[in-house]
Amino acid sequence: MTAFDIAVLTTGDELLSGELTDTNTGTIAEILSRHGYRLRCSLSVPDQEKEISAALTYLVGHVQFIIVTGGLGSTGDDLTARAAARALGQAQVINEEALEMIRQWFVGRNRPMEPSNERQALLPQWAKPLANRYGTAPGFRIQHQGCELFFLPGVPSEMKAMFEQAVLPILQQKIPEVAPLQQRNYKLFGLPEPRIESMIPYRQLPQGVDVAFALDYPLVVLKLKATGHDAGELLDQAEALVMKELGEHIIARDGESPEANVAKLLTHAGLTISLAESCTGGLLASVLTRQPGASAFLERAAVTYADSAKQDWLKVPAELIAQHGAVSENCARAMASGLRHTTGTDLTLAITGIAGPDGGTIEKPVGTVFIALASPSGIHVKRYNFSGDREKVQRMSTYMALEWLRRYALRQLESRHK
Amino acid sequence: MTAFDIAVLTTGDELLSGELTDTNTGTIAEILSRHGYRLRCSLSVPDQEKEISAALTYLVGHVQFIIVTGGLGSTGDDLTARAAARALGQAQVINEEALEMIRQWFVGRNRPMEPSNERQALLPQWAKPLANRYGTAPGFRIQHQGCELFFLPGVPSEMKAMFEQAVLPILQQKIPEVAPLQQRNYKLFGLPEPRIESMIPYRQLPQGVDVAFALDYPLVVLKLKATGHDAGELLDQAEALVMKELGEHIIARDGESPEANVAKLLTHAGLTISLAESCTGGLLASVLTRQPGASAFLERAAVTYADSAKQDWLKVPAELIAQHGAVSENCARAMASGLRHTTGTDLTLAITGIAGPDGGTIEKPVGTVFIALASPSGIHVKRYNFSGDREKVQRMSTYMALEWLRRYALRQLESRHK
Predict the structure, then answer these.
(1) Domains along chain A with CATH numbers
(2) Contact check, Cβ <8 Å, B155/A214
(3) Three-state SS for A298?
(4) Pure H helices in A206-360
(5) Which ipTM score applies to this complex?
(6) What is the model's pTM?
């Protein structure tokens, strides 16, 4: 146990039955880490007095600050206050201050107070209530054997507001200021995690910089972390070293998505594009058009499932499809060149492939995908063999297409700066 | 402690820094509850050997089954196996069986194995490896002091597959069969939650059936639950009552997505469609083509951002756009009719609107969307005013379009049965 350990205890049957995903822990963790604090652990238990009480007993012995969420409502399965009283050996009594808060909440809204709301003022004897502006349930705070416990409602919006307004300031008073952790994330595409790790110049990285990885299929997220007052400088140094080795594979950074980055680069480069999608069925167009201002670069996209659509809109000759098939290098090339001829955009990207589950052959198994890019410098086509189910093949094809666009736009921007 | 307590321990710095929300606990909880089991508690700790080890020591004393996820990767911050060895007082050794699994994984993919992958075979001495078909990291299983521990990778898809294939069957052998909770989910579109609640015939519902709600924007999920040996019968009765009131608003059921349901109905009805999307930018095409066999009903889709694309592919007259604007009832109608004329599909659906953030006017604010459906019985157009940001407007438009297609296909199927 270090000096300032913080734990979160969430309560609720739904959290352990799979009906609801706990977001409160993540919210608290995120706010804490913005202020330089770290959660030591989080725990979830059902709405049972015995379980809540056991968890509290365990945590009181292990950490210094405990944030409990849930079970403060007015219904029968709201048992947190009773469990806390039991775990901490206190009586449960009507807290007059809390009762007044509840009354005022109803007065302020001109609504009658139900008798069941009075239950919400039944708190452990030595609890101090915490005001809740957004709901009827006051929170409360208890000091016990050198441990500080905060009890907040489970409704995410109420919990968050109370945590920020009532709990965080107390933590900041009690825990000496820490230099917040700084972190930079780099999203890499096209290299497996072990390969990326082997390319990181660990020995040259400045001391105090931590490296971590996360997977966000099909991306690998590389994280550089540092604490302290020179964290920014250390990260700058580390970043420069990492960029030298891996820079070209970084498809996006921090909170940005690959498609947002590509949209930004296309816009900066002033490039216009048109798309011809077969096996991705509009996924590439849809991730790009999710970006505000997509009309600056995207002229149009064709989802050409039927061969007739490839003929009409992309001017792919029927004979070409008959001879080589719709999933072929020739067809991809013809799709890109045909559409570019119609639209006159700077770039035209075409994707044709077999996403599965059906349609694979020995020569062209499921996952066979051709990508073609037509640009002023000609047409480039490549065959890929992606693995996984339909959704994975569609996703990989889309990310690969984004990567082609990203690299093209980057080259354009770089050549202009020369 | 009851006889069959199950706990989940998730590991990962990201879970306690707010970077990542833990979904593994929810997945396991949901699968368990489908089989009548309940989680007793869940715990999250950072990627630190000491913390993982302390959590394991605590859990071993409290529950009978422990499922651990995360920290089995090949990089330096993957410390679960070492922590387990320490907590359980076992040496950490290369497990030959696990090593062979890793080798085979690479052989099967014709890819070279990195030396760091060997680390993934370093398991506690008495661990039995569990095969992982979807990644390099084998899981493992250890029996210790009457407690059974399962270690699975943290990647959600790998974790889920291994839990279902390797862990669940063991739990089912060891834990006497229980009458599982039965649950049916109905996804409703187009009605707010309080309205849905007011339409439920609570008084007529058979005793023992519970009703619950969840939000999955823009859908409301209505849940009916019952336990015991007559659960199926009770739910049948309740379902019949609910269907009478709400049946027409149910866009999908249980695990099915609205788009999967629409794809199924279009296929059953033998209807072919073509799409013209402007503000949704291919989102409708992409959710439909995510479904296997989409080529049975989808002929093609046009993402016509530029007016020139609306003219070329959809035969929308330039004058019409000049007079009424691209976001107008007339344009939506012309898009649908023009494309249907070209493709000859049974249905053509067109969407044009202002998704934002820019482009809104007083007459046509952001969220103004026109949907048109051309069918053998004519063209139907409607204006909507959706609220929310770009992503919400795109999503609402897409769901609304799906709802149009669903209702059309249903009417077709019903009229044939008459």
Answers:
(1) 6-174 (3.40.980.10), 182-253 (3.30.70.2860), 258-417 (3.90.950.20)
(2) no
(3) strand
(4) 231-246, 258-269, 283-289, 307-314, 318-324, 329-343
(5) 0.79
(6) 0.79
